Amino acid sequence: MKYQSKATAVRWLMPVLLPAVFLAHPAFAQVRAKADVTCRQAGGPLEYDCIVKLINARSSEPLSGVSLTIGADMPSMPGVHHLRPAVAIEDQERGTYRAKLVLDMHGDWALQLNLSGPLRDRIVKVLRFEGGEVGEVKAGQGRKAHGH
Ligand SMILES: [Cu+2]
Fold first, then answer.
1. Domains of the chain
2. How far is the CA of 93 from the centre of ligand 1 (A)?
3. Ligand 1 centroid distance, CA of 127 (Å)
């Protein structure tokens, strides 16, 4: 009998609890983002224009209206480089964002994409910046040490 009254209580609470969970982030309650990042040298040797395409990981629809900043750190030297996060601006093309990165040396950089606003997420992409060449670094290909 006691068990049954507990179950009844849960049934009564469900309509109250469920909407509360979704109201925390109304439109994007369970959305995860996927990002495609391409950068190319622009201006100085350590200046790069980066294009970030954000899509909904489930539906592959472009994610528009997201507040996006890009932080950067060197995985081989955590905490050594302190770059101010770059603010990305959405392009006319929905879900496409542009930011200018000014690094302080060439090498492998972990870019932290911080998504906020209607959707909160964080995506890390490791890219190798070597002059005009920028490419994605797959897991296990990172360089061990570098000098300053
Ligand atoms: Cu470094």
1. 33-136 (2.60.40.1930)
2. 34
3. 13
